[in-house]
Amino acid sequence: GPGMLMKPEPFFKAVKALRREGSKVLLMTPQGEAFKQASAKMLSAETHLIILCGHYEGVDHRVVEALVDAEISIGDYVLTNGPLAAAVVAVAIVRLVPGVLGDGESIEEESFSADPHRIEAPQYTRPAEFEGLAVPEVLMSGHHGKIAEWRHSKSQERTAKNRPDLLS
């Protein structure tokens, strides 16, 4: 039979106390829709979010039927702690809310914003050499065209190695 399920009462009480006009209720669950950068962007436009999360084996399905607008999963694995998944989603959304990061530009430069099908190229800081490891010479050249080419090629390489699913 099912393991430990959370009863519906606390969820109904919480949503009743928090819900207002325009609230959107999310439930963190491994069965939910995959959470991606596009989801974060869409949800950042909402006026009021209520994020519910279970513990143990999940929640009584009447919570989903009566209260939940969307079920969300942060990945294909099971956590015994729903608040961690909720925190991941909250942080991803909040940083997209205008004014929160302080610099609107920086958001667009990041992985999955410019091109959702490619991982960012490697990045480096000073010094140019650290413990025998050098920053690639092309990045020190100041030649913007070659740098862009290098970044594109490295981005493709990293995507193929780490996330081949994005290229299909």
Give a structural overview:
- 39% of the residues lie in helices and 15% in strands.
- Strand 1, helix 2 and strand 2 form a beta-alpha-beta unit.
- The longest helix has 19 residues.
- The protein is α/β, with parallel strands linked by helices and 168 residues long.
- It has seven helices and five strands.
- It is elongated and about 65 Å long.
- The strands form two sheets. The chain has a three-stranded parallel sheet, with helices on both faces.
Give the SSE layout.
Blueprint: H1 9-18, E1 23-34, H2 37-44, E2 48-53, H3 61-67, E3 70-73, H4 82-94, H5 104-108, E4 129-130, E5 133-134, H6 137-140, H7 144-162
Q: Could you give the order of the helices and strands?
A: HEHEHEHHEEHH
- In round numbers, the mean pLDDT is 89
Shape: elongated
Q: Alpha-carbon distance between the termini?
A: 39 Å
Q: Tell me the number of strands.
A: 5
Helix content, binned percent: 25-40%
User: How many H/I helices?
Assistant: 7
Query: pLDDT under 50 segments (min length 5)?
Result: none
Radius of gyration computed on alpha carbons: 21 Å
- Within the largest sheet, what's the order of strands? 2-1-3
Structural class: alpha/beta
Quaternary structure type: single chain
